[in-house]
């Protein structure tokens, strides 16, 4: 646990499920003030707020589409108007779909790039603008993927969005380091989230994924949330412009694990 996170205001996009939900709960356990952004109506949102308050934190929910500039502006403004500040911005909202690249429609390309990359940019911009105005030495975390460095056939739009996110984050980190604003990425590997539930329910498909992980097992959302908490804390105050790969070693060329090659 990180005592300095108590009372900090954190905005998490795409926080109603998966990694976003796990991070919302973790920051609640840190007794932070959590702004839960969600896209579609979800009756479970109120339960999330109740649980976060039960942990000792506080929370509100703000519906919005991160591809829409006005929604992202409203998200940040509601966080500030309700909690009085903004200390941590986590751009987590993301989408993917599998399509052979020669069949990929412009509509699908634009949807993934708009959500994963443009949405993260808008969140970064709005948070940085406020932090500069108020002289807040804040933390921004962009949820990337191992596929910012690992090519992924049939997911060219997703890989492009995460590769773009990497350099966007590094550029912002360099630009705003003198102001004390830190910008980092987390690159999860294979994590047991709802988006992967169907794949991991098939023993053969699950085993195939596990064969790509040197540690041999699928990660849990809570393990990613732990990285986000550390990156947001004073313990990471000298860390900016990096991606932390929480991937069980997936980025370390697992095919060579047994000394082959």
UniProtKB/TrEMBL annotation:
Recorded coiled-coil stretches: none
Q: Which Pfam families match?
A: adh_short_C2
Q: Name one GO molecular function term.
A: glucose 1-dehydrogenase [NAD(P)+] activity
Q: What is its EC number?
A: 1.1.1.47
Q: Which UniProt keywords apply?
A: Oxidoreductase
- Show the InterPro entries listed in the entry: NAD(P)-bd_dom_sf (IPR036291), Sc_DH/Rdtase_CS (IPR020904), SDR (IPR050259), SDR_fam (IPR002347)
| Superkingdom as given in the UniProt entry | Bacteria
Family of the protein in this entry: Belongs to the short-chain dehydrogenases/reductases (SDR) family.
- Which named protein is this? Glucose-1-dehydrogenase
């Amino acid at each position: 646990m990180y005592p300095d996170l108590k009372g900090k205001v954190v905005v998490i996009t795409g926080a109603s499920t998966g990694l976003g939900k796990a991070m919302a709960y973790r920051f609640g356990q840190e007794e932070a003030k959590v702004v839960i952004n969600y896209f579609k109506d979800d009756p479970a949102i109120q339960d999330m707020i109740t649980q976060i308050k039960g942990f000792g934190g506080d929370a509100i929910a703000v519906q919005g589409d991160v591809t829409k500039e006005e929604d992202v502006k409203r998200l940040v403004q509601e966080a500030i108007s309700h909690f009085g500040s903004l200390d941590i911005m986590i751009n987590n909202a993301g989408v993917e779909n599998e399509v052979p690249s020669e069949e990929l429609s412009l509509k699908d390309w634009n949807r993934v790039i708009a959500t994963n990359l443009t949405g993260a940019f808008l969140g970064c911009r709005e948070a940085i603008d406020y932090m500069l105005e108020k002289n807040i030495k804040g933390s921004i975390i962009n949820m990337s993927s191992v596929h910012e460095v690992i090519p992924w056939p049939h997911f060219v739009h997703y890989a492009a969005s995460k590769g773009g996110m990497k350099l966007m984050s590094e550029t912002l980190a360099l630009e705003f380091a003198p102001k004390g604003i830190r910008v980092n990425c987390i690159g999860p590997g294979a994590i047991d989230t709802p988006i992967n539930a169907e794949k991991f329910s098939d023993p053969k498909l699950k085993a195939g994924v596990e064969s790509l992980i040197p540690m041999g097992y699928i990660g849990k959302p809570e393990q990613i949330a732990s990285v986000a908490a550390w990156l947001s804390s004073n313990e990471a105050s000298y860390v900016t412009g990096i991606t932390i790969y929480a991937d069980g070693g997936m980025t370390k060329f697992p095919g060579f694990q047994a000394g082959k090659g």
